[in-house]
Model the fold of this input.
Amino acid sequence: MTPSSSERRYYDMAREGGSWDEFPRRDILGYIKARLKAGDAVLDVGCGTAEILNFISKDVAYVGMEKSEYALSEARKNWAARPDTVFADDIFLMKFPALKFNIILMLFSLEHLKEPRRVLLECLRVLIPGGILVIAAPNLEFPLAWPNALRHRSVWFRAGFIFLRLCDYLKRVVGRYSFRLIGENFTEATGRYEKKDDDLCHVVSSWEIVRFLEKKGCVLEKFWEERPLTGWRRFVRLLPAMRWYGVILVAAFRKI
Done:
């Protein structure tokens, strides 16, 4: 499978797996539409094919950042009628001035970053005071969580990785954050994308992200959960650094 067909498979599965009429995209969309005003600027980090433009007013300045050549090509083709829309292939190639954007979106892109801490800091730099950063990502903060992206690895590698993740958990308890990367993922190793998160790069922890952004001058304004947890999952949250266990990370942060 060529890299382009692997990318196409990823976006096909993403469309099948989530609709803008369903949680969490539905809730995020309602939240940002209630806050956007004419003339506001939106940065969409990991914009994919920029489907969100179907729902955002043309009075809003939109910049989409994406590393997938396939997705960028599709986005530019689909939105050619919006000449004000900007698409770029790397957040660091475009030297945005500080305090430029009113809303920044990271919708299922944080887990694909190999420099998540750096990208988050860059987002905060270009976000205006009072601006909103919205993040959606798989929450893998449980130390024994095993992502599909590592299913090609050996049993010994798995044992070592779980040990590292247990250490990460202990560090989280005392306020240190690892932003654990996984190295070569399944898609990079095989050229295939067959299961959800085969191309995951960063093992996201909701606890790490929330606490990190709070320390960098943000307030957690909203954390969405589709439904209340029941049974043993609810009690796991009583453990240190497991406040958001059991649900995906879907949160809005306001920059102070």
In short: The chain has one domain: 3-255.
